[in-house]
Amino acid sequence: MRKLLARLRDDDGMTTAEYAVGTVAAVAFAAALLKVVSSDRVLAALSAVISRALG
After folding, report:
1. CA-CA distance, 13 to 10, in Å (whole number)?
2. Which residues, 6+ apart, have CB-to-CB distance to 36 below 8 Å?
3. Each residue's pLDDT tens digit, 1-55
4. Where in the chain are the domains?
């Protein structure tokens, strides 16, 4: 029983799991950012800023 408990408490592989969670969070953030940036209002605002800068 002690060996089983020691094995369950062992956290080998935690680093890999943490990287996986971080990667999923980064992808979710990138997807949300892409959705916001590709909206009509943001595109119009960016176009206006660029037009003012160049014109």
Report:
1. 9
2. 42
3. 888 777 777 666 667 788 899 999 999 999 999 999 889 998 999 999 999 999 8
4. 2-54
- The 3-state DSSP class for residue 1 equals coil
Cβ partners under 8 Å of residue 43, min gap 6: 37
This prediction has a pTM of 0.56
d(CA 31, CA 46): 19
CA separation for the pair 3, 53 (Å, rounded): 68
Beta-carbon contacts of 37 under 8 Å, excluding residues fewer than 6 positions away, are 43
